[in-house]
Automatic annotation (TrEMBL):
Residues 39-287 form the G-protein coupled receptors family 1 profile domain. It is found in: Cell membrane. The keyword Repressor does not apply. This is Olfactory receptor. One of its GO terms (cellular component) is plasma membrane. It is a multi-pass membrane protein.
Amino acid sequence: MDNVSIITVFTLSGLSDIANYRVILFVLTLLCYCVIWLVNVTIIVTVIVDKKLHEPMYIFLCSLCFNGLYGTAAFYPKFLYDLLSTTHVISYAGCFLQGFVLHSSVAADFSLLALMAYDRYVAICRPLVYHSIMTKQRVCILIFFAWIIAFYFLLMSTITTAILRLCGSHIPKIYCINWLIANLACSASVAKIVIPAFSYTFCFGNVCFVFWSYVHLIKTCQSSKENMGKFMQTCVPHLFSLTVVVVSLLFDLLYMRFGSKQIAQSVQNFMAMEFLLIPPIMNPLMYGFKLTKIRKRRNVNCIVNQ
């Protein structure tokens, strides 16, 4: 009981052996974070400014890019500070806030990717009723529920974890997540088993919905060259985005649960950062180069600037 009252900060691990290349890592990380902001803000501003892009697919893409900025904001500023610091700690409240933002960002990613799959399904499989189904009002409602459901699940997880009695303060990672905080509990808890199960089921359900949508999309597109062209242009970037997110998360999740502690610390850190590095950069780049309207808009801006 006494240990509970004195825990005001958590210590983070993974950065103890970087003294010799601390500055190099700081510069590279800062560069990556700037690139993340550049590519995502470019897509967001392009969609907002160009009224021709005020369509469901691009609105969902804009939300996906905003979510990328939201999630990375919980990690990179703190990580950059830790790279230049000799002590790697985070406040009790800060740890839970970081965990909540990271978790809710991942959940929102899956929700938004599921909505984008539904949008493509209606556009290609039911084109005659697309505009009556995917109205701007309905799109806004779908995005709202995508965010609010993700927030609700992770808020419950965070609250359940926050009320635990903790008997330790060391987080074996470069950032906080609820599961690792729950591991510090003095006794077995619902937060460690049931709550994560709901979160994983939510994400898995979204992935299953996406694959179900693509089964119908592929069946529909096989009979029409025009539909196959639409599929290759708009669905391939979406499928790539989903694959990148799932693979990035699986690497970290499987290692965290079953991985060997003998793996080099630098490799552990990269796996921990992977879903905060690759998807936020690759998603806007893939859509920016693949989607015709965004590519044309970018080319027009380049010509005007010249």
